[in-house]
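Example A, followed by Example B.
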Amino acid sequence: MTRFVDVPAMSRLVQDIGVTQFIGELAEAIQDDFVRWPEFDKSARVANHSDIGVIELMPVSNAERYAFKYVNGHPSNTQRGLYTVMAFGVLAEVDTGYPVLLSELTVATALRTCATSLMAARALARPDARRMALIGNGAQSEFQALAFHSHLGIQEIVVYDVDPRATEKLIRNLSAYPALKIIRAASTAEAVRGADIVTTVTADKAYATILTPDMIEPGMHINGVGGDCPGKTELHADVLRGARVFVEYEPQTRIEGDIQQLPQDFPVVDLWRVLAGAEAGRQSAEQVTVFDSVGFALEDYSTLRYVNAQAEQRGLGENVELVPWADDPKDLFRYTRSGASRSALRRVA
């Protein structure tokens, strides 16, 4: 049987663990897998683009487990009452191909994205970072804020969004964390002034320049999350040229990240090599670092692995007969007759 974790089960799982603990443990799980980078069979995601969005499949595997995620990105969805990003994924056994987990990944993707940002910032930001600018206050923003506040010591976040309602939503949702000071800015330039870390998490599918060179200060760490597909950027090219740039999977980031603006020989550093101790991260307190984050399948593998273990431990989710039960592995035709299913959908907890 395959464990099925739907949105209510994922919500309960996050509540049982606690959102900040979930983020911290997930960041550790992702880092554990990044350090083992050479063990994984990797490829850039397969993307089908339209004028208003993209639908992608993201596969990765090692010797034991295979994982994939289905995910979209449609910024105009919010006008239709839908989320910009929606996702689900599968974790399967490599030896048999049997799917052990089918899970929602919309909520989980927000958690894994901020956990990845946290993992990168621990390696790249100045250790005395206390103030962060958060540009883009949509569905991902609270997760980023909590990750940096709870696990990196960020005490003050200056927020800005072109939609004031998004900022109001962010402030309302974070009111449960009184130790985190939230300051509303009137512009991006005002928000980033004096920031140790700048997180950009905007949604428009456009060649945007959310950050320009005049906004950059010595020692900043830029966590560029929103530029994640061809034709979608957030950073002026000169911001990248003036920084040490780190990527997840270079062949994918060259196509989708902010570095798509630059020549193929523009130097970048593989984040996994920094985490594994094979390459230096930040080289000085004054250096500007950029994490050109586009999202990579290994992060979803880690998330599915973590979710499966935690859901099993807590008895959450349902068992579903996603593939036929093989009483006779050579007789598939039996499933065209009534009464062939091993069991109906049954709840574990």
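Example B, a separate protein, is given below in the same form.
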Amino acid sequence: MNRIFAAALAAALFSIPFASRAADTAPREPYGIALEGFAYPYAVHLLPLVNDSEQLSMAYMDVSPARPNGRTVVLLHGRNFPSSYWGPVIKMLSEAGYRVVVPDQIGFGKSSKPDGELHFDTLARNTIALLDHLKIDKTDIVAHSLGGMLGVRIARAYPDRIAHLVLTAPIGLEDYRLYVPPTPTEKMIETEDKLTAEGYRKQLQTNYAIKLPPEAITPFVDARFNIKGSPDYPRWLRAFVSSGQMIYREPVAHEIPLITLPTLFVMGADDHNAPGRPNAPEALRAKMGQNAELAKAFAAKMPNARAEVIPDTGHLVFLEAPEKYRELVLGFLGQ
């Protein structure tokens, strides 16, 4: 029943206005590198920022509930996903009374693609700047994938601004430098540029163990590949590769046990995503990506944390098991 519900949800999710279709077959006018032409489920606003002397714009959605409970949740997206994929979670939280703020981090989605390198500390400062702009003193954070690494940095650097932390299928539960040799940026750019839309679809399905129908994955492929016709595509590509280097060079695994605020890990049992694993020595690859076990081990070391593992679920746990995710997250935030 849970799989049937997830399939129905996915069909509904990707029929609403922010869905785009047929990335692999139908030619279309390319998106801009700020995803111009790719619709989001709610109105998008822009916050001017300066990072390393560069003028940039941070895109975000700010969704007010019909019956406010006086609390706010910030959603932090993953590396390969525009923040539009949070649509069902925005609806879930809004219906429960939460104001929901959903930024695209600099370098991602509808936000600017910078000339400079990406750093978690800079993204954390940008997120706090957004909260200051919106006059939000304290918030809960619900993060996914790469957003989990950022959530850890924010929780460590600004603990007084965060009430609860939900880490949904986070990456960064291990220090990938212990397994994977460093890769030159230009080599990464070459590899990413050669990737085809069909190859990317297979990569998502394999690396993330996604339990969704193929049509539900198409918008992610669209968002990645319909920008290739843009004249600014090389700028996007360099920013995307910079985010991969950020994951590798700026581990947070050593900081996770130091988090003292209430923390919930929500893990997919089948999610063994481990960035860089193909570049690791073969003898080490099998040791990487034991994410559910790593989350449980971290939670046991932390003063106020627990880990929940959802069976038969991959990396997109909030889309694959929406009812269980709702139960866990709303129950945790309500404590």
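On Example B: Strands lie at 45-51, 54-63, 72-76, 99-103, 139-144, 162-168, 263-268, 305-310.
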